[in-house]
Design a protein that fits this description.
- With 307 residues, this protein is mainly alpha-helical.
- It has two domains: 203 residues, Alpha-lytic protease prodomain-like, CATH 1.20.1510; 74 residues, 2-Layer Sandwich (Alpha-Beta Plaits).
- It is 64% helix and 10% strand.
- It contains eight helices and three strands.
- It has a three-stranded mixed β-sheet.
- β2, α8 and β3 form a beta-alpha-beta unit.
- α1 runs antiparallel to α4 and α2 packs antiparallel against α5.
- The longest helix is centred in the first third of the chain and has 30 residues.
- It is elongated, with a radius of gyration of 26 Å.
- It is a multi-pass membrane protein.
Length: 307
Amino acid sequence: MSESPVQVIRKATWVGSVANVGLAIVKIGVGKLTGSQALVADGVHSFSDLVTDTAILIGSRYWTAPADKNHPYGHGRFETLTNIFIGMLLAAVGLGIGWDSLQALGQPPSATPGLLAFAAAVVSIVVKEGLYRWTLVQAKRINSRALHANAWHHRTDALSSLPVAVAVIVNYLVPDLHYLDQVAALLVTAMILKAAVEILWPALLELTEAEADSQIETKIQQYAADDPDICEVHAIRSRRTGSTILLDFHLLVDPAMSVDQAHTISENFKSHILVKLDEVVDVIIHIEPYTCAERVINPCCDDHSCD
């Protein structure tokens, strides 16, 4: 029996949570022991993943729920709010790490990070990159933007450990370059903030009812051109709600058709769209006669036929 979207989300999130706890404890502990501020910052980043994991575990109970009387369009915006929370948390963590790094910049370290710190950073890179790839596969399986955002949270943790590893090994070989540890922590900050923006921006666009996909209109027009019963399609609008897209447009047919024939054409076209576009979950079609008063794309003429 195949797993439901909620089961996939929970499994991926719990696996990530266990890994995050272990890595955070190791990196913070080794960072304190060896005097690596960059490794401590990286460990705090790992702990921040636990908060986003909790948000996803709670939020997934709501955004996967079916439409009801109070939410006729479904609960997808709960996923949007979860993404905003993840993005804002990442930004806050990044700014906090950056501030601490700037304050420590130029100050002599209490100790020179050794090979133990380097080993901890390398382990983090390997584990988090593996988590990123696996979680991304799970996100694509169920088309979950929140799980996709969490996958990238894993990737930022892997990437942020890379400058830490470089700084630690260089600092170990050349102790006079102790400032590299603080520089690496600032690089971690930049990576975290970049990931925060990439998660926040699409979610904010969704809340402002921005177009869901710039390619949707082109695809709909192509599908309509391939259907001999459809004369014209215009006023195509799309909006995103979580990981799904809602679509509506005007469809023009031969005015000599009966209402029943026009309805059948629109229902067949709707089914075709739902099969072709995985993210689209609902389509509202406004049927109009192909007359001079209703045409938008094609120029008007005396001939009311589609040819």
